[in-house]
């Protein structure tokens, strides 16, 4: 498909041209023939394929609804809520014309005859199973009819994926189309076998088969109408609460939890524009409001045209009913809001007059310039008065909020005091009872100590003299053992000295053996005789010393 032909399309047609499964619908491997076929037959012949088809359609219908492309036209572009003087015609003082399309729902899917026509694909035809798809999505509470959603007085919890948790984002509900594993479609042999099995079943059913073929068509007729995506309503509600309480935490104000329908819609528009880039329809706003009041555990109440939110987003936080004090405070808030709008209008008018003055001065039209200068001066004086009144009113509101906080603090003190009184009134913590219990505890501890002493000393009549005698014997034995150690140590030393002496004697004997060798001519006979005499004296002294040591031992 060429880029030129794609650029001429809008709405759903353009969306489908960018989806992988629609790029080549006539290909033998394309899943579209199975997806566009009579799904009621696949429920029996191919249960796995049936569930895959339902999931594919769930993702596609959810995506086209949230993106605002379920119709033949493109969704309108979000328009900034803030306007400047350059966006206004100087002469008429009216906003310049801008673009914008029809308002489109982002949480409601419409099923009618035109739906089939918009989803028609060349070479494949119209989707035959949309009635069955809506039926299956209704069974698991993903879709609820618009009438049921608006009329129900009991909470609508939605599909199991939403129960017991808070949604984190659109990806929690819209898996990327194409992520589903189409195993039975991408295996031609398996699909052929499934088709053959279906043909056999059709033949066996005979006339009943005609009714089964028309089941999708009957479902389509029964399910025509508008259907609310619970996931998408829940998503917008969650994003709104997150934004509201994040702003309240940074700039807390008790008045911020009281809103008119207009304020709620404006705030929701800002959240959707920032988070998703679109402006919700009036129907989307009503559905989100209904969801917050009915389905979110009492975090919001709607009473007398006012929406009141709980003081926090905690799990157990509940909005209190709107009382007369809330209404009076809200009147002050409304007055402040009017002043803010008047100030914005005056500032805007002053900017317009500035442009006019510059224009007439540049054209040398002094009379007109002076006229607008005077008008601007009066506007500026009025602006100063309004700003002074606004500042005073803000101070009043600040005092009111401080007083409310003081009341809450005093109520907390009072509640705490009541709890303390209730606790102190219990019989168990009376002073006399406490003293009695402490005395009993002390007596019990003393009894335990006495019992332990009795157990340790029972059956043991000790004789201190006998113990002293045993101690003396132990000391004597210990001293004798020490003496033996010293004696053994001395004997070891004597043995070492004796061994050294024996080694010396052996060396002396070796030297004596040298006397038997022939005399050296270089040594005189007298000198040799003296050496022999010295050796003999050493041997004699060594022998005598050894004998004395042996006798001493």
From TrEMBL:
Q: Which residues form a coiled coil?
A: none
A Pfam short name:
Snf7
Region feature Disordered, mapped onto this chain: 82-105, 475-553
Basic and acidic residues compositional bias: what residue ranges?
475-506
The Polar residues compositionally biased stretches are 507-516, 525-553
Q: Which domain of life is it from?
A: Eukaryota
One BP annotation, GO: vesicle budding from membrane
Q: Where is the signal peptide?
A: none
Gene Ontology cellular-component annotations? cytoplasmic side of plasma membrane; ESCRT III complex; multivesicular body
Q: Which InterPro entries match?
A: Snf7_fam
Q: In its UniProt entry, what is this protein called? A: Snf7-domain-containing protein
């Amino acid at each position: 498909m060429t880029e030129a032909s794609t650029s001429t399309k809008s709405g759903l047609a353009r969306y489908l041209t960018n989806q992988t499964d629609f790029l080549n619908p006539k290909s033998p491997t394309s899943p579209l023939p199975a997806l566009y076929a009579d799904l009621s037959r696949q429920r029996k012949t191919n249960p796995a394929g049936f569930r895959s088809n339902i999931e594919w359609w769930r993702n596609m219908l959810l995506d086209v609804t949230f993106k605002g492309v379920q119709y033949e036209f493109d969704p309108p572009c979000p328009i900034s809520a803030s306007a400047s003087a350059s966006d206004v015609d100087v002469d008429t003082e009216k906003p310049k014309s801008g673009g914008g399309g029809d308002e489109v729902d982002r949480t409601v899917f419409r099923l009618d005859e035109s739906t089939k026509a918009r989803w028609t694909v060349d070479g494949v035809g119209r989707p035959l199973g949309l009635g069955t798809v809506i039926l299956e999505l209704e069974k698991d509470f993903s879709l609820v009819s618009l009438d049921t959603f608006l009329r129900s007085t009991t909470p609508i919890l939605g599909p199991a994926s939403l129960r017991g948790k808070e949604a984190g984002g659109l990806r929690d509900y819209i898996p990327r189309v194409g992520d589903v594993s189409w195993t039975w479609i991408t295996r031609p042999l398996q699909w052929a076998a499934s088709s053959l099995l279906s043909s056999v079943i059709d033949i066996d059913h005979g006339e009943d088969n005609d009714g089964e073929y028309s089941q999708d068509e009957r479902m389509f007729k029964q399910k025509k109408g508008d259907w609310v995506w619970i996931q998408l309503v829940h998503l917008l509600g969650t994003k709104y609460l997150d934004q509201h309480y994040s702003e309240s935490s940074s700039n807390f104000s008790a008045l911020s939890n009281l809103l008119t329908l207009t304020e709620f819609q404006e705030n929701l528009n800002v959240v959707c524009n920032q988070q998703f880039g679109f402006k919700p329809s009036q129907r989307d706003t009503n559905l989100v409001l209904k969801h917050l009041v009915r389905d979110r555990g009492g975090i919001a109440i709607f009473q007398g045209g006012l929406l009141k939110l709980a003081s926090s987003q905690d799990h157990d936080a509940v909005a209190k009913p709107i009382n007369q004090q809330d209404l009076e405070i809200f009147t002050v808030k409304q007055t402040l809001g009017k002043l803010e709008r008047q100030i914005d209008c005056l500032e805007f008018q002053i900017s317009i007059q500035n442009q006019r003055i510059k224009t007439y001065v540049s054209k040398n039209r002094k009379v007109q310039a002076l006229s607008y200068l005077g008008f601007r001066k009066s506007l500026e004086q009025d602006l100063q008065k309004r700003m002074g009144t606004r500042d005073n009113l803000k101070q009043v509101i600040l005092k009111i909020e401080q007083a409310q906080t003081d009341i809450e603090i005093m109520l907390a003190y009072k509640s705490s005091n009541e709890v303390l009184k209730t606790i102190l009134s219990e019989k168990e913590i009376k002073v006399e009872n406490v003293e009695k219990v402490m005395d009993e505890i002390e007596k019990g501890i003393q009894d335990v100590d006495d019992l332990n002493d009795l157990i340790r000393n029972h059956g043991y009549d000790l004789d201190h003299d006998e113990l002293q005698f045993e101690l003396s014997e132990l000391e004597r034995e210990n001293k004798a053992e020490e003496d033996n150690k010293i004696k053994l140590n001395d004997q070891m030393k004597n043995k070492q000295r004796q061994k050294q002496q024996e080694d010396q004697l052996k060396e002396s004997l070796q030297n004596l053996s040298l006397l038997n060798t022939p005399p050296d001519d270089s040594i005189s006979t007298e000198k040799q005789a003296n050496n022999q005499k010295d050796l003999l004296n050493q041997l004699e002294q060594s022998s005598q010393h050894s004998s004395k040591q042996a006798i001493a031992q």
